[in-house]
Amino acid sequence: MLECAAFGDYVECMNKVASRHFGEIELNHGRDHYFVAKHELAGHPLELDLNITSHDHFDEAAMHKVDYRLRYLPELVDEVRQMIAEELDQEGTSPQEYLHFHCNAIKDEHLQKVFGVSDKRQLTNDVFLKALKLGHVGIFPGQPERYFVMDFTLGEHFTDEVLVASADQDGVVDDEILWES
């Protein structure tokens, strides 16, 4: 017969799953959970957060799906960057407005730090795209249409505004990129 303490340890162990990105995660049993992890992508720091609501069915398979989908994050980022590049040439898009807002009002002392150039005339779309970094990924397993929410920034030290793209649970990127504060 199992002792209560040993049985309690066993049950607690069954309620957790190991994640490659988030470490040991408690499975959802009617409570909201929020887990944060630091990650590196293409040599740049990235914050990942896993958002599970009390209504989500979150089990071991769901956690493994999160880890599996994160393996394809570099491809998602490349796809979003391509979309941003295309929208920079289209009038009235969020990426174009974000570029104009941040490049037109930039002070000379920020040019080198943010964009790596010394003259405003050097601020091309390519320079802008190179400076734009993925800084945060929100993961929402209970929202299949907005499974990944990716925030691109020119740097926290420069702006708190981001370009936001989302992808569904199958890794299909939404065709709308938003500018948010």
Commentary on this structure:
The protein is an alpha+beta fold and 181 residues long. The chain has one domain. It contains six helices and eight strands; from the N terminus they run αββββαααααββββ. It has a six-stranded mixed β-sheet. It has a two-stranded antiparallel ribbon with strand order 1-2. β1 and β2 form a beta hairpin. The model is unreliable at 1-13 (pLDDT under 50).
> Which outline best applies?
elongated
Amount of beta strand: 25-35%
Q: Average pLDDT across residues?
A: 89
**Amino-to-carboxy terminus distance:** 58 Å
- Strand element count: 8
Given as residue ranges, the uncertain stretches (5+ residues, pLDDT < 50) are: 1-13
Order of helices and strands: HEEEEHHHHHEEEE
Task: Summarize this structure briefly.
Helix content is 35%, strand content 27%. With 181 residues, it is α+β, with helices and mostly antiparallel strands. Mean pLDDT is 89; it is low at 1-13.
List keywords for this structure.
6 helices; alpha+beta; 35% helix; 181 residues; six-stranded mixed β-sheet; elongated; single chain; two-stranded antiparallel ribbon
